[in-house]
Protein: Formate dehydrogenase subunit gamma
Organism: Vibrio amylolyticus
Amino acid sequence: MFKCIKRTSLVMLSIVTALLLSLSFNVLANDSNNTGSSVAEREITQLAGADFWRQVRAGEEGYTTSQSPEHGVLISTPGQTWYILKEKWMSPAGAIAIFGSISVVILAYIIVGPVMLSKPRTGRKIKRWTRLDRALHWSMAFTFLTLAFSGLMLVYGKHFLKPYVPTELWGFVIMLAKQYHNYLGPLFGVLLVLILFKWWRKSIFSQVDITWFMKLGGMVGKHKGSHPSAEFSNAGEKALFWLLIFAGSIAAFSGLVLDFPIFGQTRRDMELSNLVHMVSALILICGFVFHIYIGLFGMEGALEGMVTGEVDETWAKEHHDIWYEEVMSENKKESSVEGQVKQEAKHEQTT
Ligand code: HEM
């Protein structure tokens, strides 16, 4: 009997102990949970509280293990100035400038019309551009135009495309534009250097260019059709060439700064590069709207030179008379030397 009571009380004791233990574990666990949550809550309140975000927005520096410049700053306040300059000023100004340039060339085509040859073609051709010249020109034209379109998509796509297409398509287009622009950009710089070395000599301004400018190239106004004197390149082409070299170098350099942010550039450097890149690219795009208009529609016979490498004698005489005379006198010299050689050979044979 005693043994039975003892066994029962032992079982009871173990049950009570187990119950007490589980209860105390629960309390402990709850306690620790409470302590944890209160710490987390406090931290969250501290971190994401209004004061915290006010500090972040004010550009205050925090702590991070990253040693790169400005990594402790979550929101850079001067970046707001960049954003306003880019989105509120330059982006609309650029759009106005591009549409303005396109409108001017359309009006020029309607009101002034293309510059036609005033005399009939002779059918005799003069070599103007070598194969290398043409390869360089069309590579540059392709690279520049595709960079211009992808760049314009990056700036303006969110206004004229994004609202009208499915999100997936927009995402794909903008990702493609970004990658294309980033990877093809450096090629523009390479082509620019090649073009500079190939064409700088014939793009040096001379006295005749002043008259060409004053007569507006004989394309508009009272001098229309007067064909002012020009060397291999006329004053307009020379100006365009140097615009390409200077504005292009600025666009290429600022593009490289943006493309490779691994040389310790700060956010200010990136913002400045972005603005400089945009301005130089927009100036180039506007300038080349006129060039493309003249090449495609504005001047009879210009395009065939850049496509076949040869121009008609009439075209050369009317648009680049000084160059035409040089080529003619060189041809004369060559043919007189050839004639002399032939005569000497004949003489040798007879003696
Ligand atoms: C559809 C686009 C284009 C067309 C139809 C075109 C047409 C032409 C033509 C016909 C010439 C030869 C003019 C002459 O023989 O006097 C020329 C020259 C030239 N083009 Fe283009 N072009 C185009 C785009 C571009 C672009 C995008 C660039 C550069 C960004 C460019 C840069 C040049 C340069 C530097 C010259 C040489 C001007 C000189 O110094 O004589 N072209 N282009």
